[in-house]
Amino acid sequence: MFILAKISKIMKIKRNIILVILSSFFLFFHADLYAQKKSRKVIKADNAFELEEYAKAAELYQKAYSKVKDKALKVEIIFRQAECYRLSGNIKRSETYYKRAIRAKYPNAKIYLRYADVLMMQGDYKNASTQYKEYLQKCGITKREADQLAIDDIRREDYLHGEMGLRSCNFALKWKDVPTRYKVYSMPLLNSRNSDYSPAFGNSNYTELYFTSSRKGGVTDKIDNRTGEIFTDIYHSKLNKKGVWSKPIHVAEPLNSEGNEGSVYVNQSGNTMYLTKCKVEKKKNLGCGIYVSKREGKQWSEPKLLQIKIDSNITIGHPTLSKDEKILIFSSDMPNGYGGKDLWMVKKEKRNIWSKPENLGPLVNSRGDEMFPFLHSDGTIYFASTGHVGMGGLDIYKTNKDENGAYILPINLKTPINSPGDDFCMIIEENGERGYLTSNREGGKGRDDIYQFELPPLVFSVKGIITDSKTGSILSEANVKIIGSDGSVINVVSDNTGSFESPLKPLTSYEIIVNKSGYIKQSVNETTFGVEQNKVFEIDILVDPEKKKIILPRIEYDFAKSDLRIKSTLDLDVLAEGLLDNTNVVVELVSHTDELGSISSNLELAKKRGDACVDYLLSKGVDPGQIKSRYVGENEPHVIDIKVGIFNVGDVLTKSYINSIKSKEDKEKAHQYNRRTIFSILRDDYVPNKNDELKKK
After folding, report:
1. How far apart are CA 682 and CA 590, in angstroms?
2. What class has domain 11-175?
3. How far is residue 423's CA from residue 384's CA, in Å, rounded to a whole number?
4. Is 67 buried (19+), middle (13-18) or exposed (0-12) by CB count in 10 A?
5. pLDDT greater than 80 at residue 87
6. Distances (CA, A) of 479 to 326, 493, 551
7. For 242-254, what is each residue's pLDDT tens digit?
8. Homologous superfamily of the 460-543 domain (CATH)
9. pLDDT tens by residue, 153-164
10. What single-letter DSSP state applies at residue 176?
């Protein structure tokens, strides 16, 4: 069996190796064939694609396609068109071309991965999940083999991307129907038909916004071949006293230029701006960097490159700073990161000099891209990522430092902050109740739009019905005291339906105490700590009636009799009720006689009297374990405890004492005192036998 298993395992490994080799050979053969048969138009499109000029490349591929006759080359062009549309943000069109490529039998399994991505970005999670599974089955490697590949091996990256996509679909299906309490609103006065994104507060009062836009009216009307839109500039808007944002105004040169400007951060004083600038000279993109501009009156100065200790050819952007401007966090694809673009931090060393960048670590940064950070005054970093479990495209996350100063695993902000599309550049006011974000979600005005969001106050309340635990009947006029951990006290009274209701505060624990005459006080605990959604705490409170007191009777008998008198049965009824209500109590009964008769006959009579009491209590359902019986006959005469007639407290009714009494009537009274069964509580920790309980039922 072991040998067969080993042979099978070896054969499986060989089969996988052969599949990978064949697959690689086919793809290289296909790529080589593609290279040999390319026309000038296709080569021109490929060059634009390599320069990340996706909008231009898509147009060139479209023109070249009709001239190509080779089927393999046509399929490759269709796939590259799909890639161009995906990478330039035209997701719907990219889906169309991926489907065409699949129907045309595009040979690389990666097409299923990309097709799944664009399906997910449109919220089609079930079909996206199917396509991710298709990719993982057809990619030619297993999970184990992927894990053994080098970290920068594209096959490993794609396999892990497929796994993450599948997980994300599963989470997104759960999240989409359970929105958080954030409310997101469109901002039609700020947005255009083009891309509007990366809002930034312009002052500490939150009455000014700067943002990036590709709308007409900027420094240039030239088209960026990467996006197919006009080069972006920075715009400005103010909030008036009525809470309405003004029409955006283009920020004049020299802040804006013929290149792309965007991702602004303005300090609390509103006089220093940090921004991303991507310079273009002679139609060549020279990369992006972080620049600083100073406000001089109503104008912004010529931006100057921020002096950070990095190689000059490294691209960085998306600045955000701490309130005191001593910590700067940005996004960059510099070496020694964990994926594409990572979040990095630098600290100010001198006036204009910053420290060597520190990576925010592997919990924050992923195999994907981390971008558009915003550092809140409470230390929380909000950022966008493609590498964590999400709802599609870029999602917004938040992270904080732990007690050791390391950033913790980010939390996805879920819907409605996130959508199937790209959601990024979230900024939030100091109180955490309002802010802005960018999204290309369905229903927008342009390609990317700015949205406002609010976090409504949490609303909590408690309501319930108070009922008798024994009978199930509702209890009106019960006093309910609600004591909060913040020292607050709320008093309410249940109505004629037994109901009560009261508001509660966030971040507070409560003890809810119910009091009603004739019932034992009952309390329950609730807390609003950790509850992130509005909630009505529904608590139906059962209160126990006060247990009947155990009234210990004194049972008296006729001369030489053990029969129970009518009064005695009534007294024993009361005792039985008390014992049935207090099943933990054990009573002892001691039966006596007078001194008339022999000692042996009196012991026998005392036993009969005790038995009569025991039998009666048992007939009423009292647990036998709650009753202990003892009989003493004439051996323990009664001791007077209350003065009555000739009898004084402490008199012991012995035979000699009774014989000394002259009155016949008083003698009979003395004898009657002695003819008795008395009860006492022996213990209160009795535990009823479960089998006996079942027998009773």
Report:
1. 12
2. mainly alpha
3. 7
4. exposed
5. yes
6. 57, 5, 29
7. 999 999 999 998 9
8. Carboxypeptidase-like, regulatory domain (2.60.40.1120)
9. 899 999 999 999
10. T
